[in-house]
Amino acid sequence: MVTIIAEAGVNHNGNLDLARKLIDAAADTGADIVKFQTFKATALASKSAPKAEYQKETTGAGQSQLEMLKALELSDEDHHILVAHCKDRKIGFLSTPFDFQSLDLLVDVLDIPVLKVGSGDMSNAPLLHACARTGKPVILSTGMSTMADIEEALGVAAHGFLGGDNPGRDAFANAYASPEGKEVLAKKLTLLHCTTAYPTPPADINLKAMDVMRETFGLPIGFSDHSAGIYISIAAVARGAMMIEKHMTLDCTMDGPDHRASLEPDAFRAMVTGIRETEAALGTGIKEPTDIERKNMAVARKSLVAATDIEKGSVFTPGNLTSKRPGNGLAPVLYWNILGKPANRDYAADDLIQEDK
């Protein structure tokens, strides 16, 4: 079953009540998990870190990225409250740690079952390694990455999962190449294809990259969707995505960096419905009539019938033999076998041709 993650992210705007409402909305849409972002602003961005262009467009160019992030922080106590609220609403809680202190909060204090590493930290080997060292399964987004970048990150994760000492590029490469590394990655890591742009134009999404990633790395592949609508996520599921992550907001017109590239609850619910219907439609891959089709076979298919009245002993010809519904008689593929043979009985026009006993 496809796992659907409602990415609340920082769409709470630093407000605990709004964060709780996002959990409620995510639960009501049928999402499996609601995801937040856990960070200490001063550990995430330096004073000189610029905003992305989309952040300037949505929050203005006046404040720095650090100032913006400070306004979006959730406290440790907020996290406790949100985890409890998720339990009450029977929806999974997930968060992305952006620094070591936040990782400790999520793992040692809150004991969340899975960790999400964002695209921006896929190349941050110390943090990725620390995430893997916890032993928690990791969901890894791959925006802005080449296949070589992903392979290197998988080596970092494999080394961490295996509890390896003396980390470094050679150690990571060896861990990735080892049977033990391959095995632990297959058990504990999910890759998400992603394009880091908010919103992402369809031409920049490249869903076919999921196929290459799946074939190359042999891992579960999902899709972190930053497009403007619901259709790309549904298409990703049709292409084999096992996990969908999509930003959700209560109102796309709210102030904040990610609201514009997020779905409001009604649209998110429509996406969930589309994913579940697509998932059901994928089926088994075995081409055979379904039970519901079998009921229609006699009605929709055809049988060999007499085109005209035919007397017993008369030869079947193209002029007196044809195919018509229903399909509960001789299959039309036998048409050429019967031509030229004598009729074994009298037939009125439209009678089903009987097999010669």
How is this fold's topology laid out?
Elements: E1 3-9, H1 16-29, E2 33-38, H2 41-44, H3 53-59, H4 65-72, H5 76-89, E3 92-97, H6 100-109, E4 115-117, H7 125-133, E5 138-141, H8 147-161, H9 169-177, H10 179-188, E6 189-194, H11 208-217, E7 221-225, H12 231-238, E8 243-247, H13 265-282, H14 291-300, E9 303-306, E10 321-324, H15 335-338
Parallel strand pairs: 1-2, 1-8, 2-3, 4-5, 5-6, 6-7, 7-8
Antiparallel strand pairs: 9-10
Notes on the structure:
It is a single chain. The protein has 357 residues and is an alpha/beta fold. It folds into two domains: 3-282, Aldolase class I (TIM Barrel); 289-357, Type Iii Antifreeze Protein Isoform Hplc 12 (Alpha-Beta Complex). It is 42% helix and 14% strand. The protein has 15 helices and ten strands. The strands form two sheets. An eight-stranded parallel β-sheet has the order 3-2-1-8-7-6-5-4. It has a two-stranded antiparallel sheet with strand order 9-10. Helix 7 links the parallel strand 4 and strand 5 (138-141). The longest helix has 18 residues, at 265-282. It is elongated. The model has no long low-confidence stretch (mean pLDDT 95).
**Rg value:** 30 Å
Mean pLDDT, to the nearest integer, reads 95
Parts with pLDDT < 50 across at least 5 consecutive residues = none
Order of helices and strands: EHEHHHHEHEHEHHHEHEHEHHEEH
Q: What is the level 1 CATH name of the largest domain?
A: Alpha Beta
Largest sheet: 8 strands, parallel
- The assigned structural class equals alpha/beta
